[in-house]
């Protein structure tokens, strides 16, 4: 009886992990950020390496940048990106809720001592 219960528990947990992975952040996302009424498109790619997440983003400038501090917990994907515009360096912090094949949330960046927040939405590309 104990063997059956243990087997059922292990199989149940394996099913949970699979469901979590399917709902997880791994994949390529086509995102749109609303910056003061202007829509900016980007492509974000998230990978899982062991128990860590990594990623890259390609923005309007078509340059690929590495994502920093990529984390996924309780359905929320967070990461940051270092950017430079017109000689000014800044960091954009993202907090996105993953719901199946969509993400929705906010990006925040500090400009001239003022924190600005932008809406972000995206869809996972189909393989």
What does this structure look like?
With about 130 residues, the chain is α+β, with helices and mostly antiparallel strands. It has a single domain (about 25-125), classed as Lipocalin (Beta Barrel), CATH 2.40.128.120. Helix content is about 15%, strand content about 65%. It has 1 helix and 9 strands, in the order H-E-E-E-E-E-E-E-E-E. A 9-stranded antiparallel beta sheet has the order 4-3-2-1-9-8-7-6-5, with no helix packed on it. A hairpin with a 2-residue loop joins strand 2 and strand 3. The chain starts with a helix and ends with a strand. Residues about 1-20 have low confidence and may be disordered.
Q: What is the structure about, briefly put?
A:
This protein has 127 residues and is of the alpha+beta class. The chain is 17% helix and 63% strand.
Output the strand order for the largest sheet.
4-3-2-1-9-8-7-6-5
CATH superfamily: Quinohemoprotein amine dehydrogenase alpha subunit, domain 2
What is the C-level CATH assignment?
Mainly Beta
In CATH, the topology is named Lipocalin
Radius of gyration: 18 Å
Shape: globular
